[in-house]
Amino acid sequence: MAVRAMLRSCPPLIRCNTRGRSAQASAYCVELVRNRDYEGFLCTLLLPPESQSSVFALRAFNVELSQVKDSVSQKHLGLMRMQFWRDAVQEIYSGNPPHHPVALELSKTVQRHKLTRRWLTRIIDEREKNLEDRAYRNIKELETYAENTQSSLLYLTLEILDVRDVHVDHAASHTGKAQGIITCLRGVPFHSSRRQVFLPVDICILHGASQEDFIRGSQERNVKDVIFDIASQAHVHLEHARSFQNKVQAKAFPAFNITVPLDSYLKRLRKADFNIFHPSLQRRNPWLPWSLYIQSWRKSY
């Protein structure tokens, strides 16, 4: 089958030891998330124990997709990796997952929680479209990308928590959009070092900031104004998400732990006067585990 052929041609990182046990596959997912999505790792540790392994599998799947763009040198290689995961999802829902640790764990999660297939395929489709090395044309395009990736991940997390509610979905939609926008901002220093700029073109034009300004790490006011406008949109989405708190079921609150690191980054960005290249923004927040615990105890977001 197509997945089997792809598995043989995939880089060593995504091969699976077919003799591995389920525990090894689970440990692989946890370690992958710990190394590549540390904030997601911390958030998952605060979920109900019976949900953690499933969410780690889901987050590991997301990590596999998110790192494709930066790990391949040519677009066609990225398309091959995306096709592997598209075929893998198809085979998971056919009850015959490929021998890949993330696919095996994701298969268990799909069967256990009856996950909605379209959210998984939507993440793949959107990540594949994003393989193009071009900036977002406007903030709306960035929001669409965030909705189809980060919000979809939250919808699936809520299904694992056995929450299916329209008000919760609205909160998840806005939270995912905020996360996608902030992820784009956080990636600016890394991408600029590779002479790449993906920030919304319309906002850059509005403030007269060129791609070269970001590539050379400019700290001019117009560059900071671009960052301010984009960060403000993320803040708006966080506030919209919080406006649904009184309508969100208690068992859904753990899915929104991600708002803690998002809010923390926006505060640190504001403290740095929206200088996206400030060294303080490149360091982990040492207080994040404690802040997450406090929010989890308060049952708020």
Explained architecture:
This protein is mainly α and about 300 residues long. The chain has two domains: about 1-130, Farnesyl Diphosphate Synthase, CATH 1.10.600; about 135-300, Farnesyl Diphosphate Synthase, CATH 1.10.600.10. Helices cover about 70% and strands about 0% of the residues. It has 16 helices and no strands. It has helices at about 1-10, 20-35, 40-45, 50-65, 70, 75-95, 100-115, 115-130, 140-160, 165-185, 190-195, 200-205, 210-215, 220-240, 260-270, 290-300. The radius of gyration is 19 Å and the shape is globular. The chain starts with a helix and ends with a helix. The relative contact order is 0.10. Mean pLDDT is about 90; it is low at about 1-20.
Give a nutshell description of this structure.
The chain is mainly alpha-helical and 301 residues long. 68% of the residues lie in helices and 0% in strands.
What distinguishing features does this structure have?
301 residues; mainly alpha; Farnesyl Diphosphate Synthase; 2 domains; 16 helices; globular; disordered N terminus
